[in-house]
Amino acid sequence: MNEADHTPHGPYPTDRTARRDRKEVDDTTPPHHDGMGTFSSRLAPSAGPIAGAAFLAESEGVDSVVLLNVRLLPHLRALTSAILDAERQAQASRSH
Questions:
Q1: Please, are residues 7 and 65 in contact by the beta-carbon 8 Å criterion?
Q2: Are 38 and 44 in contact (CB under 8 A)?
Q3: What does the alpha-carbon distance between residue 55 and residue 12 come to, in Å, rounded to a whole number?
Q4: How confident is the model at residue 61 (pLDDT cuts 50, 70, 90)?
Q5: CA–CA gap between residue 50 and residue 28 (Å, rounded)
Q6: Residue of 67, 66, 72 whose CA lies nearest to 31
Q7: Sign (positive/negative) of CA torsion 79, 52, 68, 31?
Q8: Strands 16-21 and 50-59
Q9: HEC states along the chain?
Q10: Which of 2, 9, 17, 54 is the most buried (most CB within 10 A)?
Q11: Segment among 5-9, 55-59, 75-79, 91-95 with least mean pLDDT
Q12: Spatial distance between the Cα atoms of 96 and 91, rounded to a whole number of angstroms
């Protein structure tokens, strides 16, 4: 098997994905599963979900992808959306 055989194509079957706009996709990898949250980060499957977002960004004419994955302890999970929103605001300010 070569490297290309391990590259995912399309969303992971157990992940929930939602396109926010043409430059952002949100993703949630459920507990105890591999998905975008484990593929694109150092996070391993565990008892907590992984919330993330992928942003298409441009800097000095070069396109790139910014990935943010968040997994917090149960008593801190309410902060997940605030963390993702802060990154959304940062991306929006960079694009103007």
A1: no
A2: yes
A3: 18
A4: confident
A5: 6
A6: 72
A7: positive
A8: unpaired
A9: CCHHHHCCCCCCCCCEEEEEECCEEEEEECCCCCCHHHHCCCCCCCCCCEEEEEEEEEECCEEEEEEEEECCCHHHHHHHHHHHHHHHHHHHHHCC
A10: 54
A11: 5-9
A12: 9
How far is 31 from 3, CA to CA, in rounded Å?
A: 26
- Nearest by Cα to 25 from 37, 13, 42, 41: 37
Q: Is 9 exposed, middle or buried (0-12, 13-18, 19+ CB in 10 A)?
A: exposed
Q: Residue written as tokens 């298409």?
A: 56
- Of 55, 75, 74, whose CA–CA distance to 65 is shortest? 55
Is the pLDDT reported for residue 10 higher than 50? yes
- What does the pLDDT average to over 15-30? 95
